[in-house]
Amino acid sequence: MPVQPIAELIRFVRRNSPFYTELYAGLPDRTAKLTDLPVVPQTEFWQANTPRDNRLLTGPLEEAVVFKSGGTTGSPKFSFYSREEWREFTTSFGAGLVDAGLRPGHRVADLFYAGDLYASYTFILDALNHSPVANVRLPIGGAAPLESTAQTLEQFEVEVVAGTPTTLCALADHLLASGRELPCVELLLFGGEGLFQDQQPLLGKVFPNARVSSIGYAAVDAGLLGRPVPGPDTRVHRVFAPETVVEILDDHTGEPITREGVPGRVVVTDLRRRLMPVLRYPVGDRAEWTDVAAGQFRILGRAQEGVRVGPVSLYTQDVLDLVRAADPAGRVTGVQLVVRRWRGRDGLVLRLACDGNPAGLPELAATVEAGLHAARPLYPEAVAAGYVHPLTVTWVRHHELAVNARTGKLIRVLDERPHA
Questions:
Q1: Which residue stretches of the chain have pLDDT < 50?
Q2: What is the 3-state secondary structure (H, E, C) of the chain?
Q3: How far apart are CA 156 and CA 143, in angstroms?
Q4: Residues 6+ apart with CB under 8 A from 378
Q5: Looking at 190, 214, 237, which one is the last position of a domain?
Q6: 141, 145, 248, 296: which has the highest count of C-beta atoms within 10 A?
Q7: For position 412, what pLDDT does the model report?
Q8: Segment 100-130, tens digit of pLDDT
Q9: Is 341:418 a contact under the CB 8 Å cutoff?
């Protein structure tokens, strides 16, 4: 499918998607510029994007592949791609793998996760299959036993290993414990979460000849976001043009940032997707331009819409809903998600504000924790596997919650991890 002119795409979604029809109801009929459109409200977007009585899709669900992203078990987030859209998505991403360092003949182990409607394993395998360079694909998956994975890498003298940083580090730790290293590995491709400096020494001990690179920047809901940019900073990516339009918006004005080095939140428009349109969709990340003319930007961490703790994604609204459900008496007057990193692992601190009366707070904290674990079981599983620290619930007075110094508004997500 060719890239659609923006004006044509706007007309199409206004005519065929009930959600966008309502969202754009107050706009002039001939609206033709992205900046004239509102940023998609995430909560309403997902409320409209349901398996039954879907109000977001532009047509009936008759031919598509369906994936699920980081919602809770009670509020999963589904993404839909037509056959042609998925092929174009993976083909474009596969071209970006060459930027990451993929070379003809490379033997590549796919250690991403499959099943339960997760996309990453299938996505990377298809991207490798559609890459412009020949390669040998080993679809191992992230759930395979570490020793079995290690043996396969050794048997095939694998040169490229692709997975989340958590998976790569777990594999490295397993190999280190048995006194082994894999000098044949030339390239480690990570995705799904950021790679921190404290993880690299471990990887270097086991993969002494491997260069570390982002596999690329994409999301199953938002689609294509950025190609890897060779260099020492693995956070820098380049926009997939002309397939997508990436904007970085000012936190206070909502206007697109056109200067380098100014942080803002990332929104994306996909000019090819029509079944599940994505126009000015907030990705949930913050970034800054490093070269505006070249379309290069640096990812700075999560924005307000969501947070990623190790391999676990959490939507802010889901957490707010869980706290509200656990607190029918309304004692919690404010919620703040704080992500920190210590001893080589991420950890989530759920900061809850109350009226100062300590009675019953430990029980309420336990109820909140149990509710989050039940709704997002991947979190306690990651804790049990040693990937992240256990959830911590702390109580504060409302004035102790961090606010924006300029506007006084509550900051829902504080990412205090080192991103340098």
A1: none
A2: CCCCCHHHHHHHHHHHCHHHHHHCCCCCCCCCCHHHCCCCCHHHHHHHCCCCCCCCCCCCCCCCEEEEEEEECCEEEEEEECHHHHHHHHHHHHHHHHHHCCCCCEEEEECCCCCCCCCHHHHHHHHHHCCCCCEEEEECCCCCCHHHHHHHHHHCCCCEEEECHHHHHHHHHHHHHCCCCCCCCCEEEECCCCCCHHHHHHHHHHCCCCEEEECCEEECCCEEEEEECCCCCCCEEECCCCCEEEEEECCCCCCECCCECCCEEEEEEECCCCCCCCCCEEEEEEEEEEECCCCEEEEEEECCCEEEECCEEEEHHHHHHHHHHHCCCCCCCEEEEEEEEECCEEEEEEEEEECCCCCCHHHHHHHHHHHHHHHCCHHHHHHHCCCECCCEEEEEEHHHCCECCCCCCECCEEECCCCC
A3: 19
A4: 311, 312
A5: 237
A6: 248
A7: 84
A8: 999 999 999 999 989 889 899 999 999 999 9
A9: yes
Provide the CATH number for the domain around residue 172. Answer: 3.40.50.12780
- Are 366 and 391 in contact, with CB atoms under 8 Å apart? no
| Number of domains forming the structure of the chain | 2
Amino acid 290 reads T
pLDDT at 352: 93
Residue indicated by tokens 């390239």 = 187
What lies within 8 Å, CB to CB, of 369 at 6+ separation is: 350, 391, 393
**pLDDT given at position 398:** 80
Q: Is 249 a domain residue?
A: no
CA distances 111 to 141, 164, 166, 191, 279, Å, are 4, 8, 11, 11, 31
Task: Please give the pLDDT value at position 41.
Answer: 95
Identify the pLDDT of residue 333: 80
Rounded (10°) CA dihedral 77, 82, 84, 89 = 0
pLDDT of 203 reads: 92
Query: Does the CA dihedral 79-149-382-187 come out positive or negative?
Result: negative
pLDDT of residue 290: 98
Q: What is the pTM for the complete model shown? A: 0.82
**Cα–Cα distance, 341 to 198 (Å, whole number):** 10
The pLDDT of residue 73: 55
373: domain CATH number is 3.30.300.30
Range of the domain at 347: 306-415
Counting other chains too, the contacts that 151-155 makes at CB distance below 8 Å and 24 or more residues apart are 152/109, 153/109, 153/182, 153/185, 154/180, 154/182
